[in-house]
Structures are given as structure tokens and as C-alpha cells.
Design brief:
32% helix; two-stranded antiparallel ribbon; Rossmann fold; alpha/beta; Type 1 glutamine amidotransferase; 7-stranded mixed β-sheet; 177 residues
Length: 177
């Protein structure tokens, strides 16, 4: 159980439903408090397949130092998320503190825009392979890739491996939680 740990999960319209809910629910099952953080607090966002989710907080209203991990779901939401300076600042801060960052599918766009992928081994949907490589990352066609504090995955079918790796990294980073 990971009681006491807190994670941010970014949210914007057109998130990939499974890539948001599967990781959020898995973390909550282990006792991690997960807050959905979007442009506005209390806002309802709709996933690609119509599943709604309501944000707990706005990007600018959270204290990053209060959180232990970050999840970035895929879908088309990452293209919107990476346009917010607050989102990029959160990603950079989490990365500087070496806190676990999970990204799946198109979520790599957010990490690219935050300029934290140079020299990293990553994966993503093959559709953004060139973007990842142009950001200085080495792209691997594997279900999950862990490089330091970054856990990356390709698509919904890889969610079990993704979350196993993410939970393992949480255990490594916070063994007493």
C-alpha cells in the first residue's frame, strides 16, 4: 500500500479514456491519492470515447512539492496540455526532483515541450516517434520503457506493463510509503 503518496494526473478534453482511468484507478487501489488537474478546477472534461472526468484542481493552484508522481495520459489531450506554461513548469519541476513521471501514447508531446527528453530512452505511439527522436530521445518499440524517473508506454494494450513498471518505480522511490 502506498498511503500518503500523492500524484497529479493531467486532464484536458479528448484524453484517451483508458489511458487516464486505468492508471488513476490502479494508483488509487494501492492507496495513492490521485488528483486530476486541468485548466480549471471543477471542470468536466470528456474523453475521446465520451467518458467524463472532473478536475480536482487547476494547473496554477497546486503546489508541485506536495506531490510524489505525475501521470500524463494520451489521446489528443497532450496537444492541448503542452500549450500551458503551468503544465510545462510542473513537468520540469517533477523531473528536476527526480519524481516518477508516467507518459503513454501521445503524452510524449508534453514531455517534448517541457524539454526533458534529451538523451532519454522512451517509447510512445509510433505516430510521434519522429517527434520523440527530434527531441533528442532514443525511441524503442517496446510496451514500456523506464529511464530514470520516466516511465513511457505505447498504447492502451500496454497498460498492464506500464502500470507494473510505474508502481515498481514508486516502490523504489518511496520504499517506506
Amino acid at each position: 500500500m502506498k498511503k500518503g503518496l500523492k500524484a497529479i494526473c493531467f486532464i484536458a478534453n479528448d484524453f484517451e479514456d483508458l489511458e487516464l482511468w486505468y492508471p488513476v484507478l490502479r494508483l488509487r487501489e494501492t492507496g495513492v491519492t490521485v488528483h486530476l488537474v486541468g485548466e480549471k478546477a471543477g471542470e468536466k472534461y470528456i474523453g475521446k470515447y465520451g467518458v467524463p472526468a472532473t478536475s480536482d484542481y487547476a494547473f496554477g493552484s497546486i503546489a508541485v512539492e506536495d506531490y510524489d508522481a505525475l501521470l500524463v495520459p494520451g489521446g489528443w489531450a497532450p496537444d492541448k496540455l503542452r500549450r500551458f506554461p503551468e503544465v510545462l513548469a510542473i513537468v520540469r519541476s517533477m523531473n528536476r526532483q527526480n519524481k516518477p513521471i508516467g507518459q503513454i501514447c501521445h503524452a510524449g508531446w508534453v514531455l517534448i515541450s517541457a524539454n526533458i527528453l534529451d538523451g532519454k530512452n522512451v517509447t510512445s505511439t509510433p505516430g510521434i516517434k519522429d517527434d520523440m527522436e527530434n527531441a533528442g530521445a532514443k525511441w524503442l518499440d517496446q510496451p514500456v520503457v523506464v529511464d530514470g524517473n520516466i516511465v513511457s508506454s505505447r498504447r492502451p494494450q500496454d497498460l498492464p506493463e506500464y502500470m507494473e513498471a510505474f508502481l515498481s518505480l514508486l516502490e523504489k522511490c518511496y520504499p517506506n510509503a
